[in-house]
């Protein structure tokens, strides 16, 4: 029986490692999976457009379809859930809905809504690269939050960039609006993650300027 163990944010961050071998018999109750996804969706996003979508693959037959797309990485089959993180290339279309909701709740007034919606529309129209950059950037924020939320609930994850994007889009009929950013496997580890080392702050941190 899976039970939550309360951990500090620092403990969760230090405990999270990429797990590639999963106990295929360990299920994640739907309520817990939904809670992890809900927490992931509290991630920040540019203009609050919430660029992420989560394609959840739990059906064994569908995971088998995913296996060759993921270049034979067995973890996509053995993990309870394999989650495709999608970035919204047309997130600007959500602007009016987002800010109408804020208006109805009294968070902003009409002038602020109209200003922000116009700003978003102009930004997306004037910079073709922006849509892709924002889709990847903001979906990645949600992806990291999802992995931390999973660890806080007692489950392991692994982010994967090694997969055939075009084959994934075709096999799972992903609309052109959405860009596959990464795949995350989630479940219960059968073998602990490999230990890793990290660069020291003396190598990572630049004070004020190069």
TrEMBL record:
<protein>
    <submittedName>
        <fullName>Nitroreductase family protein</fullName>
    </submittedName>
</protein>
<feature type="compositionally biased region" description="Basic and acidic residues">
    <location>
        <begin position="13"/>
        <end position="23"/>
    </location>
</feature>
<keyword id="KW-0560">Oxidoreductase</keyword>
<feature type="compositionally biased region" description="Polar residues">
    <location>
        <begin position="1"/>
        <end position="11"/>
    </location>
</feature>
<dbReference type="GO" id="GO:0016491">
    <property type="term" value="F:oxidoreductase activity"/>
</dbReference>
<dbReference type="Pfam" id="PF00881">
    <property type="entry name" value="Nitroreductase"/>
</dbReference>
<feature type="domain" description="Nitroreductase">
    <location>
        <begin position="14"/>
        <end position="188"/>
    </location>
</feature>
<dbReference type="InterPro" id="IPR000415">
    <property type="entry name" value="Nitroreductase-like"/>
</dbReference>
<feature type="region of interest" description="Disordered">
    <location>
        <begin position="1"/>
        <end position="23"/>
    </location>
</feature>
<dbReference type="InterPro" id="IPR029479">
    <property type="entry name" value="Nitroreductase"/>
</dbReference>
<comment type="similarity">
    <text>Belongs to the nitroreductase family.</text>
</comment>
